[in-house]
Structures are given as structure tokens and as C-alpha cells.
């Protein structure tokens, strides 16, 4: 088990056997120790584990703000708009529309090789295989390839396209 998994397991076990005052104390001590962070959204009381980028309660960012677009350092609005348009067409009226689509690049054929996660408020779903299949996701792969040609992604780079209005 990794350190993060051990910490998560220990905090979960402690919380499972705690009453309300003890739960508050455990949350506060874990937050002060740097193992948890509290959502900055005033309407969300959720505590999140150190490695999480987004609140699991409301899906907001770590600084308590709704998520917005997060794009590669070098892009053009035209390329970014093409990716958003392709994603909106992909989800269309027949599929549930995520609030945002997140791409995490760890290697592969440019942005098309990124791991893809859909955000639905505080819930996330991984897109198995991402958008690598050119035949199945022609518009999306073309838009991702265009972004890659403009600026090759770096290992660990992260982009987010907000689809909810």
C-alpha cells in the first residue's frame, strides 16, 4: 500500500468508529497535519484527501471556486473552441452531459493518449480508453491532435474543458 492509501484507510477506520464531536476532531487534526483539505465552497462541508484535485462533495477546485477551463500553456482560442465543440457534439442529447472533461497526460500519442475523466459535480467517472480511437471519436481526436501539434504536452500536464453552462 502507498502512504496515501494507508492514510486514507486509517482516517476512514477512525471516522467509522467516531461520534460527531470525535469526527470533527479527527477531520481538524488530519487537516492540520496536511492529510485532508476542507472544501472552500461555503455550501460544501466536505473534507478531501491530500492527493485530490477536486472536491468529492461538490466538484469545485481546491481553492473553493467552481472549476473553469484549464488549458495548455500554448494554445489558440480556435483550437480550444474546436475541442469544446467536439466534446459537446459527442455528449449531445443522447448521453448525460458532464460538467467538465479532464485530460491527464502521462505519455502516449499527444493529448489523444491522455487519461480522461468526466466530472459530474463531485462525482467523477473515468472514460475507459480515453479518446484514443480515431474511428470512434473522429472530431475529438482531430481537435486533440491539433492541440498536440501546437504544443506537445508535458508528462503530468492537466487540462480541463468545462461543458456545463
Could you give the order of strands across the largest sheet? 5-4-3-6
What structural category arises from helix and sheet content? alpha+beta
Q: What is the C-alpha radius of gyration, as a whole number of Å?
A: 18 Å
Q: How many strand units?
A: 6
Range of strand content: 15-25%
pLDDT < 50 runs, ≥5 residues:
none
Helix content: 25-40%
The helix count comes to 4
Q: Let me know the largest β-sheet.
A: 4 strands, antiparallel
What quaternary form is this? single chain
Q: Give the N-terminus to C-terminus distance in angstroms.
A: 40 Å
Order of helices and strands: HHEEHEEEHE
Report the principal-axis shape: elongated
Mean pLDDT: 89
Amino acid at each position: 500500500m502507498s502512504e496515501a492509501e494507508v492514510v486514507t484507510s486509517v482516517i476512514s477506520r477512525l471516522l467509522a468508529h467516531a461520534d460527531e464531536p470525535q469526527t470533527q476532531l479527527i477531520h481538524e487534526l488530519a487537516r492540520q497535519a496536511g492529510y485532508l483539505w476542507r472544501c472552500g465552497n461555503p455550501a460544501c462541508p466536505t473534507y478531501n484527501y491530500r492527493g485530490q484535485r477536486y472536491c468529492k462533495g461538490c466538484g469545485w477546485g481546491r481553492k473553493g471556486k467552481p472549476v473553469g477551463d484549464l488549458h495548455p500553456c500554448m494554445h489558440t482560442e480556435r483550437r480550444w473552441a474546436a475541442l469544446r465543440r467536439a466534446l459537446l457534439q459527442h455528449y449531445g442529447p443522447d448521453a448525460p452531459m458532464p460538467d467538465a472533461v479532464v485530460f491527464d497526460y502521462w505519455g502516449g500519442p499527444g493529448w489523444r493518449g491522455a487519461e480522461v475523466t468526466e466530472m459530474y459535480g463531485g462525482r467523477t467517472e473515468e472514460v475507459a480508453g480515453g479518446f484514443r480511437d480515431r474511428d470512434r471519436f473522429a472530431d475529438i481526436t482531430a481537435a486533440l491532435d491539433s492541440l498536440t501539434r501546437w504544443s506537445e504536452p508535458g508528462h503530468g500536464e492537466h487540462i480541463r474543458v468545462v461543458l456545463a453552462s
